[in-house]
Write a structure and sequence with these properties.
Elements (H helix, E strand, L loop, with lengths): L2 E3 L3 E5 L4 H12 L4 E5 L7 H11 L1 H4 L5 H4 L3 H4 L4 H10 L8 E3 L4 E3 L3 H15 L1 E3 L3 E4 L8 E5 L2
Parallel strand pairs: 2-3
Antiparallel strand pairs: 1-6, 2-4, 4-5, 6-7, 7-8
Helix pairs in contact: 2-6
């Protein structure tokens, strides 16, 4: 029996955002299969947003440079803390920094090609495994060389 272990990557963003467009092109150019989640249209899961904020801090996840945030009344933009920032982002998901790439075990917030390449390289080591009845093979070595990770008796 042959079983392939894979992780489906999820890209969160808004399709007409220039940064998201660049990220999607980058993923396509690097043959990275992913699912796109439009959080303006489909909203954002509060638990997922909570994980992003726990991992990166609300200061990183909240897009304070965006038009939506800048148009808020002054009193809504001041005195922010985690709770207030999360409430703003849930009410108006376009205030979430774009894009967010969920790699399964961690997330990348914003698009910087060099950071994504580094993050994807380490992730490929984890998702390019094949499990058979005889062994676990890893195709993520240098030049995609196959490495036998473990032998089953």
């Amino acid at each position: 029996m042959l079983q392939t272990i894979t992780t489906t990557l999820r890209l969160y963003g808004i399709p007409n955002c220039d940064t998201v467009k660049k990220a999607r092109v980058w993923l396509e150019q690097h043959s990275v299969t992913h699912v796109f989640h439009d959080y303006r249209k489909d909203g954002v899961d509060p638990a997922a947003l909570g994980r992003w904020v726990d991992e990166h801090g609300w200061e990183t996840v909240l897009n304070r440079a965006g038009t939506t945030f800048r148009k808020l009344p002054e009193d809504a933009r001041t005195g922010l803390d985690r709770s207030k920032a999360v409430a703003l982002m849930l009410a108006q998901p376009s205030m979430i920094k774009r894009p967010v790439l969920d790699l399964g075990d961690r997330r990348l917030v914003g698009f910087k090609p060099e950071r994504w390449e580094e993050g994807m390289r380490s992730d490929l080591m984890d998702i390019r495994l094949i499990v058979t009845d005889l062994c676990v093979m890893d195709f993520g070595g240098p030049d995609r060389a196959v490495q036998v990770r473990s032998l089953h008796p």
